[in-house]
Amino acid sequence: MKHRRSALIGAGSLIVGTFVLILVLLGVDIGDTPPPDTLARTTVAPTTTEFVPDTSPAVDYTPTDPPITPAKPTTTTLPSSIPIDQTITVASPSGISSVNGTSSSQIDGQGWAVAIRLSDGSIVAQHVWPGYGEPGDTTIYRIAEGVMESYIAPVDSANEWLRLHDVITEGGNDKVLYSVKSGLGFDQAIEELFLYDTSTRTSESLGIIGGWEDGPGRMSIGRNVIAGETFSQIESAPLIRRRDGSPIDPATFGLASTYADCAVCPKSFSVDEAGVHLAWVEDDVLVVIDVTSGARVAEVRLLDGLGRDIDSLDVSGSAVIVNAYDRDTGILGRPYVYGFDGTSTQLPVVGRASFDR
Predict the structure, then answer these.
(1) pTM score, two decimals?
(2) CATH number of the domain enclosing 93
C-alpha cells in the first residue's frame, strides 16, 4: 500500500497598521516508493499422460553442422511405445529393480541412490549420492547373488566422500567411474575423478573436477570421452574432456562455455559407452550429437515441462533414459526411455535408471 503525506508550509508578515496574513499551501508528495513486484514461485501439478502407440512414421534426422545457438525442432513426435531390448537397472529408496521390457523384479530391498550393473551380472551401488556442495556416502558397494560387500572406500572416511558416476566395459573388463570429495574449507576442498579397474582392484586418477565453489553433477564415460556438467553458484557449464584430463571445447558441439541462471540452458550432458553419441536437454528438447562430427543426430520433443525436472540421462544404442523428479513429491519418479526417432515409454518403477552394461 502506498502512503502519502502532505506538508503544510505557512508564511506571514505583520505590517504597522495593517495585519496581512499570507498563507501559502504547498502540497508536497513525499510518499514511499513501493518495492518491485516479486514473482512468487508456483508449483504446477504434472499432467499424467498415458502413452499410446504412434502410427505416424518416424522422423529421419539428417546430420548437419551444429549451430552456435541451437534451435528448437519445428516438429513434435508424440510419445508412443518403444520396445526396450536392453535390461535396465533402477535404484530407489525402496530397493534395486531390474526392468526387462514391461516387466520388473526387485533385487535388493535397501535404499539406494545409484545402481549400475556390471558385465558379470553383479551390481555396484551407492546409498547416498550427494548434490552440489553436499557431502554424501563414504562407500561404493558391490552386490552379487544377494551378498553385499564394500567395494570402493575412501582413504580417510572422516573427510572423504564418494560419488558413483558410471561404468564402462573394455575388453571384457569393467571399470567404475567415481570421484572423491575431500576437505570442507576454502583451501582444502577438492574433488578428484578416478577410474577403478575391477580386475586389478586399482584406481587411476583422471584429474581434478571440483573445488570449494564448484563441483560436478553425474558424469559418464565413453571410450576417450568423459561428459557431465559442473556447477558454481548460479552458473553451470558443460564438463567434456578426454581421459588424460584435456578439455574438449564445447563450441565443437554448438555449446557455450558457461550458462548463467536460466531454465532452458543445455544441461544433463551424457555420453554413451561407445563414445559415439553425446546427449543433453534444452528446455523440453532432447538433443543427440555425433561426437566425431559434431552433427546433430536427433532432436526429440519431451513431455511438456519435463525438461525442468531432469536429474540425469543415460545413453545406449539409439535410446536415452531420462531420469526426472516428480514435481508433486520432489523425489525421482518413473524414468522415461526415448528413442532417437521420438518414440518413448515410461518404466514401471520409480528411481534413477541406467542401461545394463
Answers:
(1) 0.75
(2) 2.120.10.30
Tracing cell 508424440 back to the chain, one arrives at 78
Q: Are 162 and 178 in contact (CB under 8 A)?
A: yes
Task: Provide the domain count of the chain.
Answer: 1
Is residue 68, in this structure, part of any structural domain at all? no
Three cell numbers, residue 244:
588424460
Q: Is residue 55 in a domain?
A: no
Q: Looking at the domain assignment, is residue 42 inside a domain?
A: no
Map grid coordinates 549451430 to a residue.
67
- Report if residue 48 sits inside a domain: no
DSSP 8-state code for residue 318: T
pLDDT tens series, the chain, 357 aa: 334 333 333 333 333 233 333 323 333 343 443 333 332 333 333 333 333 333 333 333 333 333 333 333 333 333 445 556 789 999 999 999 999 877 889 999 999 999 999 999 999 999 987 665 566 678 999 999 889 999 999 888 778 889 999 999 998 899 999 999 887 666 778 899 999 999 999 999 999 998 877 778 899 999 999 999 988 878 899 999 999 989 999 999 999 999 987 778 999 999 999 999 999 999 999 999 999 999 999 999 999 999 999 999 999 999 999 999 998 888 999 999 999 999 999 999 999 999 998
Q: Which amino acid is at 130?
A: P
- Report H helices in the chain: none
> Which residue segment(s) compose the domain that 333 sits in?
13-27+85-355
**Other CB atoms closer than 10 Å to residue 84's CB: what's the count?**
18
Cα distances (angstroms) measured from residue 91 to each of 94, 207, 334:
8, 28, 11
